[in-house]
Amino acid sequence: MITYRDAVTQDGPQLAQMARRCFTETFGTLYRQSDLAAFLDQAFGATGLPGQIDDPAFTIRQAFDGDRIVGFAKLGPNALPLPSDAARGHVAELYQLYVTGDQHGAGVGPTLLEWAIATARYGGADTLALSVYVDNHRAKRFYARYGFVDVGRYDFPVGETIDEDRLMVLAL
């Protein structure tokens, strides 16, 4: 049975390990090892994801199968360069929504996204924004089912490699 709760400080190491594994399994073959390592350290090292658990600007919701983290979503203030006509009112950003491969199709992703949408609304956001890798067609279809629309390109750095991401927004 999958359970959900907000992240706490003690979850940091396990959460970072899960996030590193998910990112590497999904995108690891796209990058030089040095670029991948630099990104993983920046995004999921001590000052990245684990360090944001106690930052009041962020909220991180986790999904557990027993005591194993199988998914998480991180919500916070928007840092994406959205086109002015796409950023309506107060904008929140969904920074990450990761689900382990063994949980794809099991409802973890939808539950986490529905939490993010509800939490952004409750926090007063008028728009929820995210970026998604241009060739991550599964994720783009997933977000589109919830009403997210593509509003432009975003250059996403992974080490020294610059990927094309798509900016997507949902009017809340």
From TrEMBL:
Keyword Transcription appears in the UniProt entry: no
GO cellular component term, pick one: ribosome
UniProt xrefs under CDD domains: NAT_SF (cd04301)
Ranges that cross the membrane: none
InterPro entries linked: Acyl_CoA_acyltransferase (IPR016181), Bact_Acetyltransf (IPR050832), GNAT_dom (IPR000182)
Record keywords: Acyltransferase, Ribonucleoprotein, Ribosomal protein, Transferase
SUPFAM superfamilies attached to this UniProt entry: Acyl-CoA N-acyltransferases (Nat) (SSF55729)
GO terms for MF: acyltransferase activity, transferring groups other than amino-acyl groups
Annotated N-acetyltransferase domain residues: 2-172
Protein name: Ribosomal protein S18 acetylase RimI
UniProt source species: Sphingomonas guangdongensis
